[in-house]
Amino acid sequence: MLIDGHGRKVDYLRVSVTERCNFRCQYCMPDKPFSWTPRENLLKFEELFLFIKAAIDEGIRKVRITGGEPLLREDLDRFIAMIYNHRSDIDLALTTNGYLLKHVAKKLKDAGLKRLNISLDTLNPETAKQIAQKDVLSDVLEGIEAARSVGLGIKINMVPLKGINEDDILDVLEFAKERGIEIRFIEYMENNMANSTIRGLLGKEILEKIKERYTIKKLGREGSSPSFSYLLEDGYKFGLIDPHKHDFCESCNRIRLTAEGYLIPCLYFDEAMSIKDAVQKGDIEGAVEVLREVLRNKPEKNRWSEDESESSNRAFYETGG
Ligand code: SAM
Ligand code: SF4
Fold first, then answer.
1. 7 lies in a domain?
2. Is 1 contained in some domain?
3. Ligand nearest to the CA of 158
4. Using one digit for the tens of pLDDT, what is the confidence trace for 185-224?
5. Is any atom of ligand 2 closer than 6 Å to the C-beta of 29?
6. CA of 155, nearest ligand number
7. What CA–CA distances, in Å, run from 250 to 1, 12, 189?
8. The domain spanning residue 247 has which CATH number?
9. Could you tell me if the CB of 259 is within 6 A of ligand 2?
10. Residue 306 resides in a domain
11. How many domains does the chain have?
12. Is the pTM of this model over 0.90?
């Protein structure tokens, strides 16, 4: 079992397979031109898998593949199959913008993927274009349908932004509800890579918008999830991720691995340690020692706050969110 320096059990590994993306979301990586990490600096699937296998042996039970846009990495289904074939009971999930999903949904399902989180910030094509800086909506919607049709579990993620998509909250909620998909609203997390003019809605402001149409009952957190669950009067459940309150840090169970092999203990902070040398030498014990060191130093809580809106230097496209 993996326990961090604050006594929290860590059993969830998020693996970013690329920092590249086919979108340029305002809250993530709005600026071009962009210097990407050269492809040769990325860990190969075999190297990432060596670490994942060791981490599973140490107690990791949930693996989420993310990015950048993970579907840009060629042969992702091969990587998913490696993890699935090692231990089929691992909760194996993926976070994607959905743009390429219609081409690969079946391959991913066949490889052993169980669940997907798909980002959907609006149902308005112009607003989608404003956020992603590309005309993306119809492909994303087709991706969602493709994933549903092959039987992948789906959740939708939405980041509400002031003056951009705040009036789309109820529309996206209805879209998810009609399809029996859970939606999670995520507070915008201020970071220095984002467009400096954007402002997010706080959790309470998101709930106010939903209360314009529904009565909401507060449920609670499910296990170590950062998402707080709420129930509408018609029985539909949705989630809210509100890091500005940072009470979810108390039960944080996750650690992040970047495509270059850095282990990151907290989404907010710059700290990271590399497992690259160890896995490239096949030194599993060395990689596990880095993992233990990172866990010993995992921060107690993030520093986003309701009052000061502190910004992080961490790029979401690098850590995978
Ligand atoms: N490209 C994929 C996607 O967009 O779903 C996966 C990577 S993305 C970094 C993972 C999640 O982080 C997405 O749901 C995205 O909306 C969210 N995200 C990115 N930047 C964010 C920010 N500044 N604040 C809150 N959520 C953010
Ligand atoms: Fe790409 Fe996802 Fe970042 Fe948007 S949030 S730019 S889709 S990595």
1. no
2. no
3. 1
4. 999 999 888 999 999 999 999 999 999 999 999 999 887 7
5. yes
6. 1
7. 18, 15, 18
8. 3.20.20.70
9. no
10. yes
11. 1
12. yes
